[in-house]
Records
---
Amino acid sequence: MAAVSMEKLTKVYANGVRALDALDLEVGDGEFVVLVGPSGCGKTTALRMVAGLETITAGTLRFGGRVVNDVSPRHRDVAMVFQNYALYPHLSVRQNMGFALENKKVGRAEAERRIRSAAGILGLTGLLGRKPTQLSGGQRQRVAMGRAIVREPSVFCMDEPLSNLDAKLRVQMRGEVLRVHRSIGAATLYVTHDQTEAMTMGDRVAVLRAGRLQQYGTPRELYGTPANLFVASFIGSPAMNLYEAALEGSGEGTAVVLGSQRLTLPAAVLAGRPGLAGYRDRKVIAGIRPEDLAMPDGTAAVAEAGRGARPGGTGPGGTGPGRTGPGESRAGTTGARNAAGAAGGAEPVAYLRAVVRLIEPLGSEQLVHFAIDAPQVREDAGLRAGDQVAEGEIMAAQAANGVARLGAHTPVRPGETATFAVDATRLHFFDPDAGTAIT
Amino acid sequence: MSTSALAPPPETPSPPATSRRERRRRKRLEEQASTIPIELYGLRRGTVTAATVCCVLFALFTLVPIYWIVVNSTKTQANLFETFGFWFARPFVFFHNLSLLTQNVGGYGTYLQWLGNTALYAVLGGGGATALAAFAGYGFARFRFRGSRALFYLVIAALLVPITAITIPLYLTYAKAHLINSIWGMILPSLVSPVGVYLMRTYVEVSVPRELIDAARIDGAGEARIFFRVALPLMVPGVMTVLLLSVVLVWNNYFLPLVIFSKNNLYPLTVGIGLWAQRAQGSGNAQLFPMVVIGGLVTIVPLIILFLVLQRYWRGGLLLGSIAN
C-alpha cells in the first residue's frame, strides 16, 4: 500500500485559477519523492494539500489506503518543514520540538526521549535551551526538521527547506536531509524549484508545470529519457541544446539535418526509437545534452574520436554529497567507449561543426558556447517549434545557440570552428507540435 | 545508539547567549545602522532648529495644563483666584487638599468611591474591550469566511456615528433593559471598540505569520490552543496598545456615564468631579475648588503609571528568528 496516493488531485481557487490539474502520484513507504518545477507549477499547492493546509477541489488523497480528503491536518499524521522554518519565536528549541507532543498528550518521559533522540541526530543537543533568535540559519532549519521528526509521522512534507540557506550550506544540508531520511525511514514528499536538488536527492522525481505532471520517474529516467521538451530542458544544467531539425532519407541512410549539416543516424538509433520511422522527411526537434558533446583530440583520425576529452567529471550535482548525478556515470562511459574506440564503424559517432563563441572556464571543466546554423528551440522562452524564423532569429543565430561541456584541458578558443563528436544514441527527438519525446 | 555517528558539518556559529542589556544595546546599534543621520538629509541651514523650536513650543502648549494642575493643587481656594496661576504660593496645602478627597464634603459624594468605580469600569470595560478586539482582530486577519470584509467595514463604520446622535435611543433601549443605574450599562457599551478591532487586525496581519499558524495546525493544536499559545504571545505589543487606549477611553468617558447614571455612588471620577465643579460655582460655603483641582490631578496619576508600566511591551523584535528573512 502506498504511503501517499494522489488520484486526479485538482485544486481550483475561487478566482478560477487552476493551480493543480488531475495529478496522479504515488509515494511508496520510505520513499523520498521530489516535486520539482518552475514557480507557479503547483508543487507547493500539492504539498499543502497533502499536509491538509489546502482544501481539495477534486480527486482523492489517500494515506496508506485511507481516504483523507476531509481529515484535518492534526489527524493526518503528517509533519511539515516550512520554507521559512515557522519556528515559534517565544518558545525555546526544546519547547518548539515538544509542542506537537504536548498537543498529542505524549507523556513527559517519552517526549523527552524523542526530543533527545532527534536532537542527537541533528546535532542540536547543546542548543535545546535557546530561542530561535539565538540560532543561525542552518541551526533553525535543523530545529524545524527536529520538530517534524519527533512526531514520528508516517509522511514528511518539506517545502523548499533549503532555499533560504547560502549556497555552500545548502549543499551540506542536502546530505543532512538525506542522512536524516535514511535513519528515520518515513515517506517524504520534498518540494523544490532547484533541479539539481531534485536530481541528487530524490528516489523518484515528479516534474510539474502549470499544474500538470510532466513526468514521474527516477532521476536517471528523467535525465536519459525525458518525456517532453519541458522535462528535457528543465532537467540538467546547462540545459539540453534543442534545435529545429528534419529527418531525411530512409532505412540505412537516415540522417538528421541540423541547419546545413547532416548527421547520419546508424541503425542502432533507429532501432531504439521505432517512432522515428513516422517522421521520415518531416520536421522534428533534436536535442543533445552539453555533456554528450565531446572534442576529438586534436585533428586525429576519426577512430580516435573523443579520447581524453573528459576527466572524471562532476555531474549535474556540483559538489554535493548524496547520490552521483546521472550525468557523471554517463560521461565516464562515453569517454571510455570513445577511447576504447575502434576504428569507426561500430561507434555511432557523428560530427558537428560549430563556431566557438564564448568559453566559461569553471576550473574542473569548460562550458563552451557555440553557434550552429540550425534554429534553436528555447522551451523557457515559450517559442514552439514551427514558429516562423523571423529576422530576429537570424540575428540571434550569429550569437551562441548551444553549450558543450568539455574537459578543462581541451584546447578550444573563441572564434575557432570546432568539431564535436556526437554520440548519436544520445540524441533526443521530440515532436515539433506536441513537444513529446519520440520513442 | 543512533546510526548517525557523524557529527554535523561545522557552520557559522550561532550568536552567543546575551543578557537583556547586551541585546538592547545591540538593537540600538542596529537601529542606528539602518537609519540615516540627520546631517545627510540635505536640508537648508536652520530648518532643523526651526522645526525643533516649533515642536518644543507645541509640546509646551500641550503640557501647560498638566503643569498648571500640579502647581495649583498645592493652593488654598483663595490663592487659586488671587495668585499667579503658574507658580506656587504660600501656604503650601497639598497634603491638606489630599485629605479633603477622603471626606464627603458637603454631601456631594466621596472621591474614593468614585475612584473605585472608575477602576472597576476601566478594568472590566477596557479589559473586556481589549479581549474582544484581540479575538476579532485575529479572526478577521487570519480566517477566511464569507462576509468577513463586509463585516469588518461595518465595524469601522460604527466610528462614524457620534455618541450624541445615539444618546436618546441608547437611553431608551437601556431603560427597557433595566441597565440604567447599573454598572453593566456602563461596561457593555465600553466593550465595543472599533478602533481596537482595526488596530488588532492590522497588528495580527503583520506580526502573526500565516505559516506559524499552519505549523501549529499540523502540530495538532486546536484553534483555541493556537490562539492562546502561538498567536497571543506575538500579539502582545498590539494588545498592550489597545489595552492602554481602551482603559484611557473608559477612564475619561464623561458622556456615557452621565446618561446612564443618576445615582451618586455609581459615578466614575469624570462625572463626580464634574458635579463638584458645578456645585463649586453655585454654593459658596463648600471649599470645592481646590478639591476639583486636586481631584483632577489624582485622576490622571493612575493612567500615567499604567502608561509607564506598559511601555516595556512596546518592544519589537519578537518575530526575529521565527521566520527566515
---
Amino acid sequence: MTDSAFQIFVNILLANNMVLAMFLGLCPFLGVSARLDTAVPMGLATTFVMLVASLCAFGLNLVLTALHLEFLRLICYIVIIASAVQLVEMVLKKYSPVLFRALGIYLPLITTNCAVLGVALFQTSREYNFVQSMAFALGGGAGFTLALVLMASVRERLQLSNVPNLIQGTSLTLMLGGILSLCFMGFAGVGG
Amino acid sequence: MSAQGVNTWDQFIEGIWKQNPVFVMVLGMCPTLAVTVSAMNALAMGVATMFVLVCSCLLVSLMRSIVPKEVRIATYIVIIATFVTVVDYAIQAVSLALYDALGAFIQLIVVNCMILGRAEAHASKNPPWIAVINAVGMGIGFAIGLLSLGVVREILGSGTLFGVSLFGEGFQPWVVMVLPPGGFFVLGGWLLVFALWEKRKQAKEAAK
C-alpha cells in the first residue's frame, strides 16, 4: 500500500463512503438520522471513537503480530473498542461535562457500530502504516458524519411534504438512502 | 404438555414471521445490504449468522445465572466474537472464493445488533432449549430475509440465479441492482410489499 494519506482520506470520505458505498454503520444511519440536531453530535462522537479505536487497534495489531496471536484479533478489537468507548465517556465526563451531556446517550451505542470495527479491520487487512490508518479513521468518521447530516437534512424537509401513507417509515428512509447512494456513485474514482 | 408444545412452536415461528429480523425489526442491516449481491452469498451469510446466533444463544443461556449483571454485555460480545472467529476460519478453509466475496463482513457478524439483541433480550432470560429454538427461528428468518434480497438482486442485476443463467443472451442486466444503491432500493421495495399486504389484511378484517 503506497497511497498517500490524503488519497486515503478522500477515498473513504467520498468514493467509498462508509455508509453509502460500504454499508457500514447502517443502524445509526437509519435510526438517528431523523433530526439534524441529533445527527451532528452522533457523527462527531463516532468520528472521535473511530480515531481512538484506530489508534488502539494499530498498537494492538503490532503486539498480536509479534506474538503470533492473529486469531485473537477480532476478540481483542471488539474488547478494545468497548473499552475505548468507556474511556472516552469517562474522560469527557471529567473534563468536558458540556460535551458529555451533548453526546451522552450516543456513546454506548457506538460500541455496536460496525463502522468503528470496520475501520479497525480494514486498516489491518490493507496493512496501512500509522499515518495512513489515522487518515483512514478520520476520513471514515467524516464520511459517516457527512452521510448522516445529508440524510437528516433531507428527512427534515420530507416531514413537511405529503408522501403516501404506505411508504412512510423505514421504506422511505431506505429509498432515500438508495438515491443518496446513487449520488455518491458519481464520486467513483476520486482519490484512487 | 400441549400448552408447552404450542409455546415452543410460537418461539420458533416468532423469528421467521412475526418478528422477522430483516423485514419487521430492521436489525442487522449492514450485512443484509452489503453481501446480498448474489443469492449464493446471501445464503452463506445467512447460514454463518445462524450458526453464530444459535451457538451464542446456547452459551449465553447456559451461563445466565453465573454472569454478573454489570459485565453481561461485555461477556456476550466476547462469546459472540469467539464463535465468529470459528466461522471466519471455517469459511476460509472450506471455500476461499466465498471468503473473498464476503470479505470483512464475516468478521462484522460480531456487531450484528440482531445477535446481541437476541442474547440480551431472550437468551439471558430463558432456559437453553427454548433459547436455542428461538435462535434457530430467528436465524432462519434472517436467512430468508437475506435470500429474498439476494434472489431479486441477482436475477435483476446479473440475470442469473445461483449462477445459472435465466434469460439467455438478449437480457440487459440492471447494473444498479448489484451496486450499493440497489441494496437500498430492493429492501425498501420489500418493505413496501409487506406494508401493502398488511394494509390489505387490515382492510379485509375491517370489512368483516
